[in-house]
Amino acid sequence: MTNPYYNPSGVPAQGSAVISSLLRTELTSVQAGFDKMPTLVGNAYKVLRINSAADAIEASGLTIDVTGRLTAPAGLTVTGGTFISRGITDNATATALTLSGSGANSITIANSATNPTIGTNAGNLAISNTIVIGSGATFSMYSTGTGVLQFGSQAGQAQFRVNGALSNVAQNGIAIASASAGGSPMFLATDLGGTGDTTISLGIYARGGGAVFLGTAAGTPQFVVGHNPSAVNYFFTNGGVAGNVPVMTTAGSDSDVTAYFSTKGNGDIKLIPGGTGTVHFGTYAAKAAEAFAGYISIKDAGGTLRKVMVCA
After folding, report:
1. 176 CB-near residues (< 8 Å, 6+ apart)
2. Is the previous residue joined to 12 through a cis bond, with omega within 30 degrees of 0?
């Protein structure tokens, strides 16, 4: 196999007289082999590599000091593989990797026996593209102090924001669960880490005078809750167990809260029971000395106008 650094020519031959010109030629070949290696001065701790022409060794910009710290002055890019970094002493607490930019902020990736972390020494943290975690593992992101978490589709344009807890320690939170084909994704109130309440209400609020829209397709509202800045009374609804009816009632701070239903323009209010069901109104009382004074116009389920007699 040909040696890329030096191949003896056989000159001078064994036992022959030494001729200086022939010896100088051989020593020149030896020197050419050494010239394919970088100089020692000025290249302390540098990582060596084959040059682009694949005919010599050169010193790269990467350095590895006596502590094992890898430094790349122009930045380090890992393409088509996995970059693995391990703590120096204690896997549970040691810093595994610090990525520093040209500014004062840097990203720190720390090992842990249970919860590896990604954080910053200062400033904001932005993570883009795809994050993949192990099967069954939990991916957690936390802000500290008064900080918030923001997620967006473009740099600097937040689409979703997680504010800090209203109290010092958050125990109740929100969970979003996906669903398989035929199922429905869910938006749930949940306890955090098993330390919250067993019964948790869920609040959805607009900002300022905005309304809350519920719809079946993007931009198509089916139900709208408007804003009343002084509201203390409201509707309350819940389902019914077997043999009982669902209920929609009024609630609030007043002792007597009347329900009010109105329509837009000349629209009707329709109460149409299913099958042979009936519409229930008030409490019946037999007529005494009252005289019929008039009638109220209503429509039956078929839309035919009817007149209901009323007493004075």
Report:
1. 185, 186, 187, 188
2. yes
**Is residue 93 a part of any domain in this protein?**
yes
Task: Indicate whether 95 belongs to any domain.
Answer: yes
Whether 153 shows a pLDDT value over 50: the answer reads yes
**Mean pLDDT, the chain, whole residue set:** 82
Please state, in angstroms and rounded to a whole number, the distance separating the CA atoms of residues 268 and 298.
9
How many domains does the chain divide into? Answer: 1
The C-alpha atoms of residue 233 and residue 260 are separated, in whole angstroms, by 12
pLDDT of residue 104: 59
Lowest mean pLDDT among 66-70, 190-194, 197-201, 206-210: 190-194
Task: Count the alpha carbons within 13 Å of 132 in the hemisphere toward its beta carbon.
Answer: 1
Question: E strands along the chain, which residues?
Answer: 46-50, 57-64, 70-71, 95-100, 106-110, 117-120, 149-154, 157-162, 172-177, 186-191, 212-217, 220-225, 233-238, 247-252, 292-299, 305-311
Q: Which two tokens stand for residue 92?
A: 């549970």
207 within a domain of the structure (yes/no): no
- With b meaning 16 or more CB within 10 Å and e meaning fewer, what string describes 133-165? eeeeeeeeeeeeeeeeebeeeeeeeeeeeeeee
Q: Please report whether residue 122 resides in a domain.
A: yes
Residue 108 has pLDDT above 50, yes or no: yes
**182/178 Cα distance (integer angstroms):** 11
How far apart (Å, rounded) are the C-alpha atoms in residues 164 and 145? 8
State the residue range of the domain holding 89. Answer: 79-127
Residue 168 has pLDDT above 60, yes or no: no
From the centroid of its chain, how far is CA 135?
A: 17
Looking at the predicted structure, is the pLDDT value of residue 100 above 70? no
pTM of the model: 0.59
